[in-house]
Amino acid sequence: MSGVTSAVVKPISGFTRGFSYPLRAVKFFRRKPGLLKYLAIPFFINLLVFTATVYFGLDLFQGMLDTYAPSTDVWYGVLLYYLAWIVALLMTTVLVFFSFTIFGNLIASPFNEILSERTEGLVNGVHNDEPFNLRRFWNESRNAIIVEIKKMVFFVVCMLLLFGINFIPGIGSLIYAVLAPLFTLFFLAVEYMAFVLMRKQLSFSEQRRYIFRHPILMLGYACGVFCMLAIPFIQFFCIPFAVVGATLLWCDFPQVEQRI
């Protein structure tokens, strides 16, 4: 318990501890190999989504080059060509990243709920012995997907509003450059903590308050998830690792008794 307390009091310790939770999930899977069956289906879903987004992203990339890249017969054409190449590549990367994150989470959300529940059971020793029921699984899956869609709509709308800040003369771009990454990290914490917090019957406002109650810890956790998303191949496993990491974080910080 002293380690938990110090993580809250000391910012550096809190950030480091939060950052470590997605990595702790890797060790947890090694200690509990029975959880691997819950990782298999999301892995293949993520692999399919990632392959599709890369394919269409590269197709978009090539189309943008063909449309906007000027002729390289003149000296300035070479400069403009490589500038268009860089812009097209950045846009393609953003498209692939967000498409993979959004659709991968959406499709895998029912399995992530089960994974989080099983993880908490293994940590706390409380297991759900209720036999598998297809109808119950379908109802829970439908609810999970609906909630996921709402979260994604919220994220997209907020990002569009933040993008509008760019048009403020003078400091708009600077404000956007600060707020957009911070909101993305906040959304990553909300996205994966929700799988355990919703099972605790916390509303969205209560989830938000829980996250802001541990700001440095959650910032570290979100940064850890973001780094995993940025590493090739590790991306395929990032979602289940993030879900298990969030559940382990909750088990260490189950402070929901102070609801506001």
Structure description:
- This protein is an all-alpha fold.
- It has one domain (2-124, 133-252).
- The chain is 82% helix and 0% strand.
- The protein has nine helices and no strands.
- Helix 3 runs antiparallel to helix 4, helix 4 (75-124) crosses helix 5 and helix 6 (172-197) crosses helix 9.
- The longest helix is centred in the middle third of the chain and has 50 residues, at 75-124.
- The protein is globular, with a radius of gyration of 21 Å.
User: What is the percent of helical residues?
Assistant: over 70%
Q: How big is the Rg?
A: 21 Å
Taken together, the total number of domains comes to: 1
* 3D shape: globular
List the helices and strands in order: HHHHHHHHH
- Compute the number of strand runs: 0
Helical stretch count? 9
Please summarize the sheet with the most strands: none
State which percent range the strand residues make up: under 5%
Distance between the termini: 24 Å
Q: Oligomeric status of the shown chains? A: single chain
Question: What value does the average pLDDT take?
Answer: 76
Q: Structural class of the helix and strand makeup?
A: mainly alpha
Low-confidence spans: 1-9, 256-260
